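Entry: Nuclear transport factor 2 family protein
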Amino acid sequence: MKKIALISLFLTGLFLFPAMNAQVKNTEQNILSTKRNIIKNLDAWHKAAAKANFKDYFNLMTDDAVFIGTDPTENWNLQEFKEFSRPYFDSGKAWSFKAIERNVYHIENRRFAWFDELLDTHMGICRGSGVMVKENGKWKVQHYVLSITIPNENVDEITLLKKEFEEELISRLRDN
């Protein structure tokens, strides 16, 4: 009886483990494919801005997208961001952000992912971070935050530089 159980266990392992291994490889391939698609669409989004292609840029954002810019007053829904951006795109010169480092996080079988990136921009190195959602088979930016990076040794200097502006803004925001 023990021999039959051992043989049975051995045969089960012979067939089960390769199938499990194939499933793990398939899952890893799906995750890599998803990340590649996300990176491709983020690159296309940045490229559309660099080419001042309004339609392509905003087609890579969801209808309920939010864009948070570097200024503390820049927290726009999609329509507000389009209105702010339109003159830049219409002039033929929007902005050019090139990813120099990027991390993408994704949970298998979900329709959302999040990312962070360091960008080479006209403002020097900036950090972008956001959320992407899969809509109709295409990954789109739903939430994006752009930040100017400041080396730690320059924080005191920058804090002084922006102090007056921020004190006034804090006062206005608290009064509302």
